């Protein structure tokens, strides 16, 4: 038996990366019959080689998952790297906050990347730094990149070393162009930014794990995988906003949900510039969304 990782899912077979080679595999009959969950990219499996010359095998067992992203299906991630731009397309802080919410819900570490930094003048760079300050104070890691002048790429690769990472982001942010620099010689479909909001069209249609070395895998995922947040109890929404959760118990009323109640400590910290007003706005929006979902079912 060989241990391996599913790196690609096709219609009737899977590509499994092993220490020896990539193997084209099908599921063992008994495993297929009793399988309660769909095998997906990222799953750790054991493989029996049935034809060494043609690199064909059978998947005999599936290891328990550390985590799972449901859309698109992707298992056992160490981190998700969310690529953004300050302009072209313009910065969308709500997308960032929904991404961070989803990543925490799925128990995956988050990294925020700002790409196309070569497009920013000094004033715009300063505006971005003001925004970044709030995320850094919360504890999120932020990286600057530029495909045009190839800046930040080495740091990005170092960040991925010995990990399984997924790259995602709204369309037009240059995610595929970054991956092309990480994997020179490999072609990634890219799209031009267009439309009134400066958005592009999605170019990635399925998930595939790309191997940078034997211990480093990177997934290219469809762009909106993290914007549609998962359903959680509304009482736990605050846990996804650490800077708001940190002041729990400091408000005038114990049942304060931080929505303009008198004596709300969160509002005081927003006015003092210590909590980002948009973070508070997005917290309330997701909280309300969870309340509506509960009432619907």
Structure write-up:
Helices cover 28% and strands 25% of the residues. With 297 residues, the chain is α/β, with parallel strands linked by helices. The longest helix has 20 residues, at 277-296. Helix 2 (93-105) packs across helix 8. The chain has helices at 29-34, 93-105, 122-138, 153-160, 175-182, 242-245, 265-271, 277-296, and strands at residues 2-9, 14-18, 22-27, 44-51, 56-62, 68-70, 73-75, 79-85, 109-115, 141-144, 164-169, 208-213, 216-220. It starts with a strand and ends with a helix. Mean pLDDT is 89; it is low at 191-205.
Compact overview of the structure:
Helices cover 28% and strands 25% of the residues. A hairpin with a 3-residue loop joins β2 and β3.
Essential attributes:
single chain, alpha/beta, 297 residues
Helical/strand content category: alpha/beta
Low-confidence stretches: 191-205
Element string (H = helix, E = strand): EEEHEEEEEHEHEHEHEEHHH
Strand order of the largest sheet: 10-9-8-11-13-12
* Beta-strand content estimate: 25-35%
Largest sheet: 6 strands, mixed
How much helix, percentage-wise, in residues? Answer: 25-40%
The separation of the N and C termini measures 46 Å
Outline type: flat
The number of helical runs is 8
Q: Give me the Rg, rounded.
A: 21 Å
How many β-strand stretches? 13
Which whole number gives the mean pLDDT?
Answer: 89
């Amino acid at each position: 038996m060989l241990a391996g990782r599913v790196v690609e899912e096709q219609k009737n077979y899977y590509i499994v990366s092993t220490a020896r080679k990539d193997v084209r595999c099908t599921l063992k009959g008994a495993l297929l019959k009793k399988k309660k969950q769909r095998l997906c990219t990222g799953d750790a499996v054991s493989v029996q080689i049935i034809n060494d010359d043609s690199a064909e095998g059978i998947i005999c067992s599936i290891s328990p998952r550390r985590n799972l992203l449901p859309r698109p299906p992707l298992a056992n991630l160490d981190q998700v790297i969310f690529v953004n731009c300050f302009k072209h397309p313009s910065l969308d802080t709500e997308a960032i906050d929904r991404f961070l919410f989803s990543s925490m819900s799925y128990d995956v570490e988050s990294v925020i990347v700002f790409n196309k930094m070569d497009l920013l003048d000094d004033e715009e760079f300063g505006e971005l730094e003001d925004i970044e300050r709030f995320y850094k104070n919360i504890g999120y890691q932020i990286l600057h990149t530029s495909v045009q002048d190839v800046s930040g790429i080495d740091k990005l690769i170092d960040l991925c070393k010995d990990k399984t990472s997924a790259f995602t982001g709204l369309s037009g942010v240059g995610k595929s162009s970054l991956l092309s620099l990480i994997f020179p010689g490999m072609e990634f479909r890219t799209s031009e930014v267009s439309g009134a909001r400066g958005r592009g069209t999605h170019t990635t249609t399925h998930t595939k794990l790309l191997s940078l070395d034997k211990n480093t895998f990177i997934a290219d995922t469809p762009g909106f995988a993290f914007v549609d947040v998962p359903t959680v109890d509304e009482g736990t929404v605050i846990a996804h906003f650490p800077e708001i959760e940190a002041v729990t118990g400091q408000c005038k009323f114990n049942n304060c949900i931080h929505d303009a109640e008198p004596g709300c400590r969160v509002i005081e910290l927003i006015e003092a510039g210590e909590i980002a007003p948009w973070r508070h706005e997005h917290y309330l929006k997701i909280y309300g969304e969870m309340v509506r979902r509960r009432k619907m079912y």
